[in-house]
Amino acid sequence: MRPWEQDPILAVDRLSMRFGGLVAVSDVSFRVGRGQVTAVIGPNGAGKTTVFNCITGFYKPSAGRLALSHGAAPSPSELDALTRTGRAAARTRKGGVFLLERLPDHKVASAARVGRTFQNIRLFSGMTVLENLLVAQHMGLTETGLLSPAALLNLPSWRRREAAAVERAKTWLERIHLIHRADDPAGDLPYGDQRRLEIARAMCAQPVLLCLDEPAAGLNPRESAALNELLLSIRDADATSVLLIEHDMSVVMGISDHVVVLEYGRKIADGTPEEVRTDPRVIAAYLGVEEDAVEAIEAEVGV
Amino acid sequence: MHEATAAASSGLLARALKDAAASAAITALLLVPLVGMHATEGPSGALVLKYRFGLVAIFALLVGGLRLGLHLTVWRGDSARGAAPRFPALARLAGPAGDAAKPVFFAVLLLYPLLAVLGSGGLGPSRYWIDLGIYILTYVMLGWGLNIVVGLAGLLDLGYVAFYAVGAYTFALLAGSVPISDFFAGTLGADFWRLWSFWVCLPLSGLLAALWGVILGFPVLRLRGDYLAIVTLAFGEIIRLVLINWVDLTNGGAGIASIPPISFFGIPFSSGEGGFANLFGLEFNPMHRNIFLYFVILALAALTAVATIRLRRMPVGRAWEALREDEIACRSLGINTTLTKLTAFSIGAMFGGFAGAFFAVRIRFVSPESFTFMESAVILAIVVLGGMGSQIGVAVSAILLIGGMEMLRNLTFLKDPWLFGPDFDPSLYRMLIFGFAMVAVMAWRPRGLVSSRLATIFLKERKKVSGDLVREGHG
């Protein structure tokens, strides 16, 4: 059994997404390993972002099951029992399981704890860097209610809670080397800093699974090396599993434990970076040749 | 360096003065035949020529003064252009200087009735000024209430006056209700409801308005931008039409009169035994009530301001502003956008309800006429002109718009025979001037008087965020 199949944090089963007559994703199944970095790659228009939007609740899939587990993966019988009930979440022997396709988008983030970033950066540009990180901790800060009296009257219990949130924000700002820009508007930061800040913002919400949509887009080689380091530290130090879409092969091959390849809405390969790199279908997808011409191409590029 | 600047500025002043004088002279020359001579029908029916050189002089001075003003502010040579804020005083309002100015601002507000009485020479003559103060403060409060919805949460609400109406009618109906009055007459004394109705109904008006905010908000807050604006506009009109047509409850277009006056926490402002003046050993004067009304609306406006400041620093306030910035990012962080919008809508509505109850107790008469779309438009204009989200900007623009429109009534010198003649009514031109003022402000300061936003929390220093980065929201 492959490492990501032993204890998957997210099990995608037979996911399909249709927009009218267009089938963007068709019958895609894969596993995201707990504590691993999983990359989804594929040519433009392969359906990567659609898969992401289904996982993070922004789209309701036309068909399929997205089972996210806290603690440990549920046994197949537990999962089937939940699927049959029509409910969205259940406690299991070793934690909890959420069927993401049944949750509204804000619940995917708040209850199932799936964080995400966007292909085109979506920071709150008119708010400061620190404010951005505090908005991310909204769920933790409003546990006692959206208009809790303690917060309205600024009682000590509230001030402690807020101080803890600021502390977490400061820790993250130090990790992404932006502590000196904490009071500046987020929209004033350079592009690379905005990318890192968006990741820090998603992490401040303390997700168990972090989904990154092309985190290295537009970064220079030095910045993408720093990004690699940051993502590995998120995997190792924060015990957060990472799922990313990426075109930058230095990032994909450098840090991924597991790579899933999509083409025309179908999965064409699934394995370790080395396996995927040498998979003839992947090469064909990227270089655009007929299946029977793959061998010739392989010989040509020397794999 | 300093000398060079001084020389440059004196040269600038000389050039500006020369230009202003020249343009004034050209204007005067042009206008002598056009405006200075006016042919009217004489008493015998023949045409007579009237001379209006005073008017020409006024126009010339206006043109000269405006050009001088433009030279000294907007057209400050090419080097300085765009470098410094064009209205440094206004820009400072939101900054550290604004912090120092705030106590002064509050002191002036607190002492305003005293200043009005001293300035106009007695309680009686000060009535106009006190009433004007109350009038302006009502709009300041409404502006601050709508600022929560439009300025912070970025939800364009064109029907805010509906909540103002809900508040006013809640108080008017409950205060005039015979069963309630009878109920309290049996338990707490015959006069209880007449004296205390405002103080009991004030929170109820706010709560009911908030409830209506929720009822309206629930179905429509999934709409965005223009669509939300149109639905809220329609809601405002529906409330007004219901008030007109539900004659059994609201007495229709005739309105509700005989609303009990405000009491000093149970002590009536009456001339007899046990009245306010009698109890405090003062000579009776009906102005006592107006001065008290001034302090009530001041307290209500202050409550709105303090609540908004506090809410902005709470997670819910930050979520409102985040929602205005980017709704999709908010959802990706687990923020329930419907609930968050609903809180903004209902809290804004609540302050509108408070203001409505105050309006009813001040005028002691409510009718649907008072809650037309024009009111919503004026309140929205106050918020937009002030700079969305800025409290001080909203207060300044309320004073400018409402006070300015009121001041137009006082321009009696324009009725001088040398100018427009006694038939001229400057207040008829209020809306025209109002429109021009809006166009001018939007041309020069498209983000309102105070366009920057202050951060709600900081590590080292509280910085201002330039208006260029802050988004207006799409509903």
TrEMBL record, chain A:
<dbReference type="GO" id="GO:0005304">
    <property type="term" value="F:L-valine transmembrane transporter activity"/>
</dbReference>
<dbReference type="GO" id="GO:0015188">
    <property type="term" value="F:L-isoleucine transmembrane transporter activity"/>
</dbReference>
<feature type="domain" description="ABC transporter">
    <location>
        <begin position="10"/>
        <end position="289"/>
    </location>
</feature>
<keyword id="KW-0547">Nucleotide-binding</keyword>
<dbReference type="GO" id="GO:1903805">
    <property type="term" value="P:L-valine import across plasma membrane"/>
</dbReference>
<dbReference type="GO" id="GO:0015192">
    <property type="term" value="F:L-phenylalanine transmembrane transporter activity"/>
</dbReference>
<dbReference type="GO" id="GO:0005886">
    <property type="term" value="C:plasma membrane"/>
</dbReference>
<keyword id="KW-0029">Amino-acid transport</keyword>
<dbReference type="GO" id="GO:0005524">
    <property type="term" value="F:ATP binding"/>
</dbReference>
<dbReference type="GO" id="GO:0016887">
    <property type="term" value="F:ATP hydrolysis activity"/>
</dbReference>
<dbReference type="InterPro" id="IPR003439">
    <property type="entry name" value="ABC_transporter-like_ATP-bd"/>
</dbReference>
<dbReference type="GO" id="GO:1903806">
    <property type="term" value="P:L-isoleucine import across plasma membrane"/>
</dbReference>
<keyword id="KW-0813">Transport</keyword>
<dbReference type="Pfam" id="PF12399">
    <property type="entry name" value="BCA_ABC_TP_C"/>
</dbReference>
<keyword id="KW-0067">ATP-binding</keyword>
<comment type="similarity">
    <text>Belongs to the ABC transporter superfamily.</text>
</comment>
<dbReference type="InterPro" id="IPR003593">
    <property type="entry name" value="AAA+_ATPase"/>
</dbReference>
<dbReference type="GO" id="GO:0042941">
    <property type="term" value="P:D-alanine transmembrane transport"/>
</dbReference>
<dbReference type="GO" id="GO:0015808">
    <property type="term" value="P:L-alanine transport"/>
</dbReference>
<dbReference type="InterPro" id="IPR051120">
    <property type="entry name" value="ABC_AA/LPS_Transport"/>
</dbReference>
<dbReference type="InterPro" id="IPR027417">
    <property type="entry name" value="P-loop_NTPase"/>
</dbReference>
<protein>
    <submittedName>
        <fullName>Amino acid/amide ABC transporter ATP-binding protein 1 (HAAT family)</fullName>
    </submittedName>
</protein>
Automatic annotation (TrEMBL), chain B:
<dbReference type="Pfam" id="PF02653">
    <property type="entry name" value="BPD_transp_2"/>
</dbReference>
<feature type="transmembrane region" description="Helical">
    <location>
        <begin position="162"/>
        <end position="184"/>
    </location>
</feature>
<keyword id="KW-0472">Membrane</keyword>
<feature type="transmembrane region" description="Helical">
    <location>
        <begin position="342"/>
        <end position="365"/>
    </location>
</feature>
<feature type="transmembrane region" description="Helical">
    <location>
        <begin position="20"/>
        <end position="39"/>
    </location>
</feature>
<feature type="transmembrane region" description="Helical">
    <location>
        <begin position="104"/>
        <end position="124"/>
    </location>
</feature>
<feature type="transmembrane region" description="Helical">
    <location>
        <begin position="377"/>
        <end position="402"/>
    </location>
</feature>
<feature type="transmembrane region" description="Helical">
    <location>
        <begin position="227"/>
        <end position="247"/>
    </location>
</feature>
<keyword id="KW-0812">Transmembrane</keyword>
<dbReference type="InterPro" id="IPR021807">
    <property type="entry name" value="LivHM_N"/>
</dbReference>
<feature type="transmembrane region" description="Helical">
    <location>
        <begin position="427"/>
        <end position="444"/>
    </location>
</feature>
<feature type="transmembrane region" description="Helical">
    <location>
        <begin position="136"/>
        <end position="156"/>
    </location>
</feature>
<dbReference type="InterPro" id="IPR043428">
    <property type="entry name" value="LivM-like"/>
</dbReference>
<feature type="transmembrane region" description="Helical">
    <location>
        <begin position="51"/>
        <end position="70"/>
    </location>
</feature>
<feature type="transmembrane region" description="Helical">
    <location>
        <begin position="291"/>
        <end position="311"/>
    </location>
</feature>
<dbReference type="Pfam" id="PF11862">
    <property type="entry name" value="DUF3382"/>
</dbReference>
<feature type="domain" description="High-affinity branched-chain amino acid transport system permease LivHM N-terminal">
    <location>
        <begin position="15"/>
        <end position="111"/>
    </location>
</feature>
<keyword id="KW-1133">Transmembrane helix</keyword>
<feature type="transmembrane region" description="Helical">
    <location>
        <begin position="196"/>
        <end position="221"/>
    </location>
</feature>
<dbReference type="GO" id="GO:0005886">
    <property type="term" value="C:plasma membrane"/>
</dbReference>
<protein>
    <submittedName>
        <fullName>Branched-chain amino acid transport system permease protein</fullName>
    </submittedName>
</protein>
<keyword id="KW-1003">Cell membrane</keyword>
